Amino acid sequence: MSERLTTNLKIRRGTPGDAEAYDVIEFEFEAGQSVLDALRWIRSNRDASLAVRYSCINANACKECVMRIDGRTGYACTTALKPGEMLIEPLPNKRLIRDLVTDTLPPDERLA
Amino acid sequence: MVQYLETDVLIIGSGGAGMYAAIAAADHGANVLLLDKSIVGRSGATIMAQMTVAAAVGEEEPDDWRFHLKDTIAAGRDLVDEPLAKILCQRAPEKIWQMEEWGVGWARSGNHLTQVHAPGHDRKRCVYVDFLNTGPATARTLRNQVRKFDNIRRVSDLIVTDLVLQDGRAAGAVALHLETGQAVTIAAKATVIATGGLTSMYNRNSASANMGGDGYALGLRAGAELIDMEFVQFFPIGHLAPRMTGMDPIMWDPFRYKLGGRLLNGKKEEFTQNYGAPEDGKYVVTRDAATYAIFKEVEAGRGSPHGGAWLSFEHIPEADLRAAFGPVIDKLANNGIDLTKMAIEVAPIAHYHMGGLRTDDSLATTLPHLFATGEAVGGANGANRLSGNAISETFVFGELAGRSAAALSHSAMPDIHHAAQPFLDIIAEASNRAGGGMTPTAATASLQTIMAEDVGPFRTADGLRRALDNLAQLAATLPELPTGGAMAFNQQLADWFGLRNMLVVARTIATAALARTESRGAHQREDHPGLDQAWTYNQVVRLDGDDIRLFRSEVRRLAQEELA
Fold first, then answer.
1. ipTM score here?
2. What is this structure's pTM?
3. Crossing angle for the helix pair B389-406 and B16-27, nearest 10 degrees?
């Protein structure tokens, strides 16, 4: 088995209009695990209220888990965790819904 | 405030089958509402398919749909609903050409489509899109077609929580809008369930997040019947280790039979031949046989380090690997995987559900005005699905269900304001449960463990009874599980509705598996080894209050001359 590494995920929380707030959550991982692995673990084991959009989990086929990771836009499912600290935020150029979820739907697919 | 929508045809789920159904219904003049609990055309199983599509197009060598049907029936271990399977095999070729016309881009060799020989087929029959791109190309092609119809309205992030009946018919649904937490009532002349299967009820699976058996639960609670629920297909060589991202965990299969990847035990020896399924250098061991062989090898202490088997391509020249894998080689390198120097570890993972809603040849369920399509349909694959039939059925059954539902467009629009109220009350109550304790998200993980431990591919009466007890205990906690209260994009509330569905569907699997005292296809009873001819029946499930009722039903057969 590969060695256990530790990272602290600093995650932007809240809805539009809330004061800027971050949660810092520690996650132990094996090399090769993804940011989405950590976010899903947090939802099951630490805080189920964390909002994070995803569907295919692993395949990078659905492209739903796009967010800001360490200041760069990327997919949580293909971004490898790194030891130390990582900054996880919603996309800055889309309307914020809550936590890491922004409005990425085509305009004609919203419930009007 | 509750929004009230009306449509001719309501389609719940927008994977390949839901999109194909929407196109067919719209093409027949119906107004269509196409919903997804995530994003339309992106979520679901289709987009994840990196695999092949079976159809007797006869491009690579002469073929006939009857040969495809014969293989489908043989793989299904004598339980295949033959009229449904005939529809699937007979109409698959025209759908392959329709998709080609729509620009899917099937892989070609010279002037014909490339077809590979997948396990269980008698010849080269399976088309695909390079490289590992069958699902994404299929989803993109269908999305583009769906967008061409003004009479298809697409809505994402809308979770159907219950079907609504009027005069004994399906008359629409109530739904929860994930972004706002608002309830929505949808009146529909006809409803199509296109929610896929149930594999995310198992802790190791190849599913997307929303394959939790929703459509089966919606149908059951509304009074529809399910069939063959005990047959959950495990994919034998799902990726196990090292951790690999950006790829579907079932990606190894086409390479295994294209290149001849060797399946080896912990001692790096071939082993499937010890379970009556020799590789013979052809690598076409069927899925149920390979799953059984790997489980037994692990049980005997001869598994790979993470508890599976080795899959090795080390004997293949690097140039051949590069030609077959194409750019996938670079994706593998990003994950630290060099196939010329190392074997990877694989293990069986929950992949597909043969059972589902019981339908007739028009894909009408036993509840009037309710239809099923795609993986949500039960019967066509019997006790074990033939490789490559899943995408074929999204096309064929999608088109058929859409057309059948559209034929009801002339009926009167139901008024479900009153009938929807009890179901709206459930949403209101569940949305208002803040507080602490075990979350539905954590409880879902418990359910996945119960299913994996005692309702996996290998079962015993003791284990199944234990699972039913554990499921009952978990179900007793459901009314109290906190949903976080009112908030935007409340996935904890969505998880609660998902768990509510999983709990009833899990009981149908365990109950049907306990009753079937034999081993057949994907259902293997350690305490009842071997196929028992007396069990050549389908089992049908119905919900009676909160009780699950099980019935036996004769397998539907074709006349001999239709198979000749």
1. 0.96
2. 0.95
3. 30
Side-chain-side CA neighbours of residue B286 (13 Å):
19
Provide the chain B residues 280-309 that lie in CB contact (below 8 A) with chain A. Answer: 305
Domain B235-350, CATH number (from 3.30.450.40, 3.90.700.10, 3.40.50.620, 3.20.20.70)? 3.90.700.10
Cα B324 from Cα B50, distance rounded (Å): 14
Active site amino acids of B: 287
The upper half-sphere exposure of residue B492, i.e. CA atoms within 13 Å in the direction of its Cβ, equals 29
The third-level CATH classification (topology) of the domain covering A4-98 is: Ubiquitin-like (UB roll) (3.10.20)
Burial of B28 per CB tally in 10 Å (0-12, 13-18, 19+): middle
DSSP string, B458-515: EE-HHHHHHHHHHHHHHHHHGGG-----S-TT-HHHHHHHHHHHHHHHHHHHHHHHHH
* Domain parsing of chain B, residue ranges: 235-350, 434-554
* Cα–Cα distance for residue pair B305/B264, rounded to 1 Å: 12
CB within 8 Å: A31 and B335: no
B35, B15 Cβ separation under 8 angstroms: no
Shortest distance, CA B495 to any CA of chain A (angstroms): 9
- What would the two tokens of residue B514 be? 């306990």
Q: Which residues of B touch A13 (CB under 8 A)?
A: none
Which residue ranges make up each domain of chain A?
4-98
Q: Does A45 touch chain B (CB under 8 A)?
A: yes
Per-residue CA distances from B160 to A67, A70, B194, B214, B354 (Å):
27, 36, 12, 9, 23
At A102, which amino acid appears?
A: T
Taking only the tens of pLDDT, chain B with its 564 residues reads: 789 999 999 999 999 999 999 999 999 999 999 999 999 999 889 998 877 999 999 999 999 999 999 999 999 999 999 999 999 999 999 999 999 999 999 999 999 999 998 888 999 999 999 878 999 999 999 999 999 999 999 999 999 999 999 999 999 999 999 999 999 999 999 999 999 999 999 988 888 888 999 999 999 999 999 999 999 999 899 999 898 888 888 888 878 877 888 999 999 999 999 988 887 766 667 777 888 899 899 999 999 999 999 999 999 999 999 998 888 888 899 888 999 999 999 999 999 999 999 999 999 999 999 999 999 999 999 999 998 999 999 999 999 999 999 999 999 999 999 999 999 999 999 999 988 899 999 999 999 999 999 999 899 999 999 999 999 999 999 999 999 988 999 999 999 999 999 999 999 999 999 999 999 999 999 999 999 999 999 999 999 999 999 999 999 999 988 876
Instruction: Count CA atoms closer than 13 A to B379's CA, side-chain side.
Output: 32
Pairing of strands A4-13, A84-89: parallel
Chain B contact present for A77, CB below 8 A: yes
**What 3-state DSSP class applies to B160?**
strand
> Taking the CA of residue B195 as centre, how many other CA atoms within 13 Å lie in the half-sphere pointing to its CB?
29
Residue contact A58–B249, C-beta within 8 A: yes
Closest Cβ opposite residue A56 in set B155, B208, B243 = B208
Cβ-defined contact of B208 to A55 (cutoff 8 Å) = yes
Whether A3 and chain B come into contact, CB under 8 Å, resolves to: no
A31: Cα within 13 Å, side-chain hemisphere: 8
Domain B434-554: which CATH number of 1.20.58.100, 1.10.490.10, 1.10.472.10, 3.90.180.10: 1.20.58.100
- Residue B76 is which amino acid? G
